[in-house]
């Protein structure tokens, strides 16, 4: 951008050029031409901010020059002021029809000429700023339209004014169908319970305070499935600081959430059997221990161990041993209630947590599992694998101080079952 605007003065009378130059030189750099052909050449060379053009020049008059300027893409937007003789209304009318924006009559009044040119230069500058702003807006809109994130602009009542194609793809809704409707994530929830589902109350409180908000939100899709979205909402404020609009940016994070859930499951699950692992079992056992201490309800544990498991591995191979372990896990799961928990503690050893279950009932559950195992050989290659399980049962005692003591008691009962002949259930009665 140049420091000063360029003003082109085209007039075949030298004295007129001198007068205009003196009047305008404080507004910019003044260049001049003495005929129409020269005026066109200077206009193309300098690309002036404004042109003062005499109507009555030789070779090409002002109207012809103006028409050529307006026909050229490089000069069509340069404003032209015609210079006419006083009383030449017809020249003025024809000049304005040719594309001029104003006219100046001879003889000149320097202050009037300067004021008019100054005003038009201000308009030129303002128009340039508007064009630049529009260019920027076009770039921004192209970026927003092409964004892979869903972007929505609403008014302060959450009514949609704009939605890009990515948001339409995300929600399966035509952008035009969203216009004039409330954006659900910003709308007031029907009840406090609905808001608490994903902390929408926090979102709305932040927006009422004029603050931005970001969070993870469940969203119901058109196919009635639930997706997870990362949602960012930012207020748009006017010069006085009042919120006028909200911009919401949404990204589908369903795959990431599913992966996180799978990782959480892997962290607490035995990969061979799908049962819980030892760490998760101990966590749940401690929780149930403290709950039982508060409520006074009974709590029992079963410890299970496959009999002669090493023999299975040695004679049929480790894959066969894995199949037997999976079979015991499946039978145990099928024999328990929904509120019970089964875990693989390691190797061929399992444990079951039985809330609200006294010792006698726990022994019955253990016997049901033992009998099912004995009656369910594992199909393997050309010869099924018959196996049995020993089970120890124990109940939490009023004097028990920690969950590990209950496990130790059940483990002692399992030891007694093993040494009592295997394939049996031993319930360890209170001391």
SSE order, as H and E?
EHEHEHEHEHEEHHHHEEEHHEHHEEHEHE
Remind me, CATH topology of the largest domain?
Alpha-Beta Plaits
Proportion of strand residues? 15-25%
Poorly predicted sequence stretches spanning 5 or more consecutive residues: 190-196
Q: Helicity level, as a percent range?
A: 40-55%
Q: Strand order of the main beta sheet, please?
A: 2-1-3-4-5
In terms of quaternary structure, what is this?
single chain
Number of domains: 3
- The chain-level structural class is alpha/beta
Overall mean pLDDT stands at 88
* Rg on CA atoms, Å: 44 Å
> Please, what is the CATH homologous superfamily of the largest domain?
Reverse transcriptase/Diguanylate cyclase domain
CATH class (first level) name of the largest domain: Alpha Beta
Describe the largest sheet: 5 strands, parallel
What is the overall number of helices? 15
Cα shape: rod-shaped
Account of the protein in words:
Helix 1 crosses helix 5 (110-146), helix 2 packs parallel to helix 3 and helix 12 crosses helix 13. With 431 residues, the chain is of the alpha/beta class. The chain folds into 3 domains: 6-141, Rossmann fold (3-Layer(aba) Sandwich); 150-253, PAS domain (Beta-Lactamase, 2-Layer Sandwich), CATH 3.30.450; 269-428, Alpha-Beta Plaits, CATH 3.30.70. It has helices spanning 14-24, 36-46, 62-71, 89-98, 110-146, 165-171, 175-178, 192-196, 200-208, 254-268, 278-295, 309-316, 318-335, 359-374, 403-419, and strands at 6-10, 29-33, 50-54, 80-85, 102-106, 150-155, 160-163, 213-220, 226-237, 243-252, 299-306, 341-346, 349-355, 389-395, 425-428. The strands form 3 sheets. A 5-stranded parallel sheet has the order 2-1-3-4-5, with helices on both faces. Strands 7-6-10-9-8 form a 5-stranded antiparallel sheet, sandwiched between helices. It has a 5-stranded mixed sheet with strand order 12-13-11-14-15, sandwiched between helices.
């Amino acid at each position: 951008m140049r420091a000063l605007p360029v003003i082109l003065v085209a007039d075949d009378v030298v004295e007129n050029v001198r007068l205009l130059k003196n009047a305008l030189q404080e507004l910019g750099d003044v260049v001049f031409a003495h005929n129409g052909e020269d005026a066109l050449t200077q206009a193309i060379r300098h690309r002036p901010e404004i042109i003062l053009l005499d109507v009555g020049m030789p070779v090409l008059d002002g109207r012809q020059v103006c028409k050529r300027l307006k026909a050229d893409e490089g000069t069509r937007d340069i404003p032209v002021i015609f210079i006419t003789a006083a009383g030449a209304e017809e020249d003025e009318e024809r000049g304005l029809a040719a594309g001029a924006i104003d006219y100046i009559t001879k003889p000149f009044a320097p202050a009037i000429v300067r004021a008019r040119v100054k005003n038009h230069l201000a308009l030129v500058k303002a128009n340039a700023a508007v064009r630049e702003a529009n260019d920027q807006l076009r770039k921004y809109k192209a970026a927003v339209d092409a964004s892979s994130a869903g972007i929505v602009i609403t008014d302060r009542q959450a009514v949609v004014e704009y939605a890009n194609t990515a948001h339409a793809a995300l929600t399966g809704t035509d952008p035009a169908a969203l216009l004039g409707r409330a954006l659900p994530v910003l709308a007031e929830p029907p009840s406090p319970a609905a808001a608490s589902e994903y902390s929408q109350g926090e979102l709305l409180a932040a927006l009422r305070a004029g603050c931005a908000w970001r969070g993870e939100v469940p969203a119901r899709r058109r196919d009635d499935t639930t997706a997870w979205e990362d949602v960012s909402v930012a207020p748009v404020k006017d010069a006085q600081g009042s919120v006028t609009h909200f911009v919401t940016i949404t990204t589908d994070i369903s795959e990431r959430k599913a992966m996180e859930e799978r990782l959480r499951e892997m962290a607490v699950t035995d990969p061979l059997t799908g049962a819980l692992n030892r760490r998760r079992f101990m966590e749940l056992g401690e929780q149930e221990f403290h709950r039982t201490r508060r409520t006074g309800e009974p709590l029992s544990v079963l410890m299970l161990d496959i009999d002669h498991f090493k023999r299975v591995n040695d004679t049929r191979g480790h894959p066969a041993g894995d199949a037997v372990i999976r079979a015991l896990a499946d039978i145990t799961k099928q024999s328990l209630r929904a509120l019970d928990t089964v875990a693989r503690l390691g190797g061929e050893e399992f444990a079951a947590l039985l809330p609200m279950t006294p010792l006698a009932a726990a022994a019955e559950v253990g016997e049901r599992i033992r009998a099912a195992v004995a009656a369910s050989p594992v199909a393997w290659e050309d010869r099924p694998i018959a196996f049995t399980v020993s089970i120890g049962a124990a109940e939490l005692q009023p004097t028990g101080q920690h969950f590990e003591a209950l496990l130790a008691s059940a483990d002692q009962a399992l030891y007694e079952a093993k040494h009592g002949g295997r394939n049996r259930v031993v319930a360890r009665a209170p001391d």
